[in-house]
Input
Amino acid sequence: MELELRHLRVLCAIADAGSVGRAAAELGYSQPAMSTQLRRIERYFGESLFERGPAGVRLTPYGFEVVAQARDVLARAAAIGRRPASGAGPERRTLRVAATNSPMLAGMMSGVRTRLPDLSLAVSSVYASSRIVELLEEGEVDAAIAADYPGRELEHSDAVAHRGIVTEPTFVALPSRHPLAQRSQVALSDLAEEAWFLTPDDGAGWPGVFYAACSAAGFAPAVTHEFLGDQQQLQGMIADGLGVAVVQPTMRPVPHVVVKPLAGSPLWCRYVLAWRRTAVPEDVADAMFQSAADAHRQLVAQSPHLRTWAARTWSVPGA
Output
């Protein structure tokens, strides 16, 4: 098989949808045809690009690399032959962007500035992903980074488009003197008696997915503190032994705090780039997406606990 642009589009569609079936529907394929195409593509690359699971598919570390390069190739191919109108000077545009709590925001902004120097981003922090969707639908913002959860994907009208940037496991932050701090991973049930710091309702499924995972593990949290604030302050309270918290796996722990995977990965979160179709051209959406994906890869590279987890979890061929 010779690799073609259509094969790269298939990979990107599956990565964005998080499901072979949803990607097939978006591209107008049958699911069996899409599955066959994916197997051929993976044979071409010589290893699995996606991990299959009951909630859909997730990119393997190698898959992240391949899809990132595929997006770059597709963006370059789409730009072939384009040139500004004769005599027209560069027109500086401003894009209104809302973003939920995400460490990839800064990297995305830097990447967009490099890729599209004539575009500026006006960013506002909006915690609730449900509110982000409302702002997009109302035309108050043009694009956004939002979050959702497997099985509870964001819903919006056809006026809004979205791509999944990454679906990542949720880890737990513990005091370094905690009895479980030396374990390579921590079972959620082992934390049944802990006090928990939880962020508020985000309108997209949190903290419901957390309580559901606790229930599946056989307990209900005894004490919870609602906290939405500075991460340094949160980690300071964890370091002092005041509680534990579920956190993004790319979080950099401060002294006296450790970040550990949860055994069995009972909690996952997906970050998505969403935009108004009439406000954001395809090439701009591609640049924002690529910049966000690059930012996440850089965060992974700086997170030894996440790299170790990924190497262990995705080391089995065909996983």
Q: What stands out?
A: Residues 77 and 135 are 32 Å apart (CA to CA).
